[in-house]
Amino acid sequence: MTATIPAPRSSSSRPRKVNWEKWGWLYMRISGVLLLVLVFGHLFVNLVAGDGVHAIDFAFVAGKWADPFWVVWDTLMLWLALIHGANGMRTLTNDYARGRLRKVLLGAILVSTIVLILLGSLVIFTFDPCIGAAQGGDLAQFCTAKG
């Protein structure tokens, strides 16, 4: 007696969908590792190197953001942290909320993440330490020497 085993279903017969949960899971792992490097580097430069926490003021931030390296560093940290946190909140919302409440919460997470990314990026890329530097002092001297 011979048993016939049916042919396995071919994956080519049906269209493949993007597995968003898999990509979200993968993003959380990769962004988590990158965030560890970015955050601890940020903390080291701001709190340990140089004069430590006592050196952090407007001029310190202006000096950091005058260097494109730190602009990219802080922008990458901002984007990764906000998207990482939003993805975590999305996962919690999917686990515990149902129906209309779930859709409202997911929409609120999406809107707040987009607004914060846009505002944070706007601050980083449009930061100008010389606005309002006409009052005198070290900043006014820096801005007149610069321009």
TrEMBL record:
Domain of life, per lineage: Bacteria
SUPFAM superfamilies recorded: Fumarate reductase respiratory complex transmembrane subunits (SSF81343)
A Pfam family hit: Sdh_cyt
Recorded GO CC terms: membrane
Keywords: Heme, Iron, Membrane, Metal-binding, Transmembrane, Transmembrane helix
Residues passing through the membrane, by range: 26-45, 65-83, 104-127
GO molecular function: metal ion binding
Statement: the UniProt record of this protein carries the keyword rRNA-binding: no
Annotated protein name in UniProt: Succinate dehydrogenase
